[in-house]
Amino acid sequence: MEGPLDDGYSWRKYGQKDILGAKFPRGYYRCTYRHTHGCLATKQVQRSSEDDFLFDVTYRGVHTCNHCLQRTPTPSPKEENLIQNQASKPQAHPHQQQLLEQLKTGLRVKTEGFNFDEQLLESSPSFSFPSTPPNCIKPHNNLFSSASMPENQLMGNNSTTTSAESNYFSLSPCGVNNFAGGLNLQGFDTEIAEIISAAASTTNSPMLGMDFPMEQIEFETDFPFGFC
DNA sequence: AAGATTTGACCATT
DNA sequence: AATGGTCAAATCTT
Ligand SMILES: [Zn+2]
Question: Quick one: fold of A11-72?
Fold first, then answer.
């Protein structure tokens, strides 16, 4: 029924747990192609305690399944409005939805330096697996960045989804995480390749018009073998 | 029959 | 002992 919007990948649920403090259980998913293609990407979905239509989604690992043709994430299209969310912390960056997409698609993102977009764009589907080769693609540094993008989706039957995409993007240098928002990644230490968490709001209250659905993505990278 | 979900047991950490 | 994450058998869906 409702879950966070589709992120374009296909996942297989392998567990669910009640988490202390949370009113809803957390679902554990791993890439459908784990065995067939050895893809180790996983994600966790947790419905937010307070905002009922918010979901925190945490991605871990990158997809190495070049096969999965990822469908376009969620709804389609285009849209136009964006809403800045209240939230906020980060600086908003206007253009870059693509980024998001990429993010979502999991193909990494990170840019090295600090800043910006341009580079981000490069990360494209072309290369795929980071697994082995550390560096290159992914940034050698582990910085993690977070972005948020709002998205709307109506549920019920008709789904019109309008969505906006404004995103915020923030990067921080090695190690520190500062996303205030909502989640925390607990320790990042060992070997997590990459974690991305996103909170997506899904359906909203049908009637009320506003929700600002927002989706937030955060992710953390660990040094593949790297440094930092 | 094959693939996906559900769900409690089981394991690792703290 | 309490938590969070994963496994796997039973079950449901294609
Ligand atoms: Zn995958």
Answer: N-terminal domain of TfIIb (2.20.25)
